[in-house]
Structures are given as C-alpha cells and as structure tokens.
Amino acid sequence: MPTEVNLTSTGVKNPAGYIEEVLAQVKAKNPAEPEFHQAVQEVLESLRPVLDKHPEYRSARILERMVEPERVIMFRVPWFDDHGNMQINRGFRIQMNNAIGPYKGGLRFHPSVNLGILKFLAFEQVFKNSLTTLPMGGGKGGSDFDPKGKSDNEVMRFCQSFMTELQRHIGADTDVPAGDIGVGGREIGFLFGQYKRLRNEFVGVLTGKGLNWGGSLIRPEATGYGCVYYAQEMLKTRKDSLEGKVCLVSGSGNVAQYTVEKLLDLGAKPVTMSDSNGVIYDPDGIDREKLAWVMELKNVYRGRMSDYVRQFKSAIFVPTDMQMDHNPLWAMKGDCAFPSATQNEINLKDAENLIKNGCKVVSEGANMPSTLPATRLFLEHGLLYGPAKAANCGGVATSGLEMAQNSQRMAWTREEVDKKLHSIMVEVHRNCFETAANYGNPGNLVSGANIAGFLKVANAMMDQGLV
Ligand code: NDP
Predict the structure, then answer these.
(1) Is 209 a catalytic residue?
(2) Total-model pTM
(3) pLDDT digits (tens, 9 = 90+) for 382-402
(4) Among 181, 274, 322, which residue has the most ligand 1 atoms within 8 Å of its CB, making it the best to mutate?
C-alpha cells in the first residue's frame, strides 16, 4: 500500500512547522557546521511574522532555496615555501545567491577556515548586501592558509596559486571578492596581479584595491567608520550621542583600527583593543598618537598587541587564556561595545558582564560576534543592539561604490565616498528600525535587519522563477 503523504498543493507538508522543518533539514544536510546552523537559525526565527503575512514565500519554497548555496567551489592550493618545501592548502568560494546582483563578499585567510564557517559568512552576506541598497548578491571564500609569520614572498606565491584556480569562477559581472580576516591590501594586490596576468584584462574583479590601480578612497576605513555611524544612529533614537562615551573595541585589524579612528572623531574614548594573544586596556584612552602607533605595529611590522604596554605605560595587557569561560575585554567597564575581531567572541557570560558594567550599546563590526544566547540577552535588556549584517555593511557598501567607480572609469573624492557611506548607514538603520516596527518588534534591529534583507532578495527570487 502506498504511504499516505499529506502534501499541500505546494508540497510543504506542515505549513505551521515550516521554519522548524527547514532548520532541521539544514542541520541534517550540513552536519558539523555549527556556525552555519547558528546563522540560519537566527535569520529563520526572525522571519516567522513575514511568512505569516506572506504565505507565498512558503509556497515558493524560498527558505529551502536560500539555505542552499548556488555553487560551492573547493580546490587545492599548492605552493612552495621559502625553504623550497611543497605546501598544500585548501581554497574555497561559496557563491550563495545572485538574485539581486553579482556574488560579492570577502576572502578570509585563517587556519580556522572551513566549509561551515564560509557558508555562514556567505549566508550572512546575502542579507547584508541586500540591506546596503546596492545591487550585490552574496558570496564568501578563502583558505585555511595562515599569513601570520609568512614572508611577503610566501604570501605572494600562495596568492598566485590561489588565484590560478579562482580566476575561472569570478569576474567583474559574475563574482567580485574582497578582503576579510588575513586578506588586506597586500594580499588583494597579489591576487589582482595574478588575475590580470592570467586573464589579460584590467577590470574591477576585486575590491579593496590600491588607490593608484582602481581602489576607492575610504574603502579601508569603511567597515569601521560605518559601524560607528550605525551606533550613532542607534543612539540618536534615544536622543544620545557618542560624545564622551567609553568604548570597548576588540581586535586590532582593519575593522578595529578604523572603528577607533571614527570614535575619536566623534569625541568618544576607546580604551581596549586585542589580538589572538590577548587584550590591552588603556584607562587613559587610545588617542590618535597611540592609534597611529598601533597601525604601524599591525600594518607594517605585523607585530603583537602585547608590545603596546611596553610603549604606553598607562595600559595593562591580559594574555588570552582559553580555559577562561569569558573574555576579559568584555568585563571592562564601558558604555559601548564594538566587537571587531571574529565570530562568537561574545558568549552569554560576556554579555552578562557587559550589561552588569552598564554597557548600553553593542554595534557589531565583526561577523556574528555574539552567540545566540548573548544576542537574546542584549535584546531582553533593551540594549541598542546593531547586528553585524546591518552595523558592518559599510565595508561591502563601499566595495559597491568601488565597483561603480571602476565601471565608470572614475575616482570619487574622499568626501564624496564618505558622504555616500554615511547616508547608506543612515538609510540602513532607518530601514531596520522601521521594518522591525512594521512587523511587530519595535526596537529589535535583529528582526528588522533580517526581514528587510530577506524581502528584497525573496522578491527578486519570486520574479525570476524557479532557478
Ligand atoms: P583583520 O585580519 O584585519 O583583523 C582581525 C583581527 O581579529 C586581528 O586583530 C586578529 O588577531 C583578531 N582575530 C582574528 N581571529 C581571531 C580569533 N580566532 N581569536 C581572537 N582574535 C582573532 O580582519 P578584519 O578587521 O578585516 O576583520 C575582522 C572582523 O570583521 C571579521 O569578523 C570580518 O569577517 C569582519 N568584517 C570585515 C570587513 C572588512 O571590510 N575587512 C567587512 C565586514 C566584516 P590576530 O592578528 O592575532 O589573528
């Protein structure tokens, strides 16, 4: 006897449990990818009011389609180190969704990189890029290669080998990678050089390029600046500002450096930075002179934050201790937190510590820096909480502006780009704030960002048929 299957006309077995079913499928089909499960869960849980209001998305199986990458490319990256030894790394590019524009998203070079981490980043990128107001789809890529401790020549040989394979999958109208952890101006230069050599074309296939070969002013600053602009917009809703606020910043790379710079511009007092070896706390504040020193330490000498306390005696250094159940950086006293290092760097205990010490604002520069329990606690306690896909979208938005300049063969001034970045961040905040209210969650910018990002992509997918 045939099994009785209770299908609706669209094939969704249980409309009321649709979200739970999709989530269960994601976990079953993508085992051992906890970061991807986490990112999907956060988004899907926000979408319940949208699906209640618009059952047509359910009928079109939009969620199942969004959680399945359009294409996953995984490849071998062989290269010679300085001693003539062969080294083999793994390269990836996840082309997640191109409903609203070419795939766009960074490349991460870090030993922790794996398929699940890049899928979480690519999934987040789809919604983030949608929020920017610019026509960009979502992707992400990278390698488990660790640039730390490698010579410039080793980094160049690795980048050339990586691009030798990647070049056949990307293009200015197809997929436009950029930087992320471990991929800065140096790496983008080596990658661009090899692409140009292999394809014999000078096009805007990467963003974050050098200023004299197609890069945009303000692109290096954009993620950090944008994250601070977003915090400023959140504070405005409570008639407050960043002036005089004590700020906790984690990380000391691209995002952290320009977060500190913009905080200083707006009269705030940043007191912490970190790297994977530990945290510095400077109660006198990290002023412009100290920031310039950190930038040189990190971008030129590729040194460690522990050196800061030898240079500036007012500061203390707390080394990383993996046995601890919390990060000492988030146990410092501060009004605002700007996590700018990596995913899941704020756990529930860290969130409790921040709240206990009077923190009122969290604006996420890093991608998914807060665990789900930490996120829930921030929302329960009514913090001004700017989730990564909204708060840090200034970086990719400015990459979009770089693409526009490349297409026009034009270069805009610093002021023009900064003005555009600022107005994009204001608009992104307004969109998240109003969408949250329209869907019954006033003040919940997680819900606002997820729903607003989703709607644009989902509507494009509906228009384009079952592809
Ligand atoms: P960088 O490589 O420039 O800097 C990363 C910083 O975070 C370094 O200080 C690094 O320390 C620290 N860090 C990285 N991994 C870990 C870890 N596992 N534990 C502790 N510290 C760690 O990267 P970015 O500044 O570009 O990126 C930082 C975050 O911002 C990432 O989450 C990235 O995805 C996100 N982001 C970046 C954008 C950009 O435009 N660059 C755009 C949007 C988001 P160490 O040197 O010791 O490794």
Answers:
(1) no
(2) 0.96
(3) 999 999 999 999 999 999 999
(4) 181
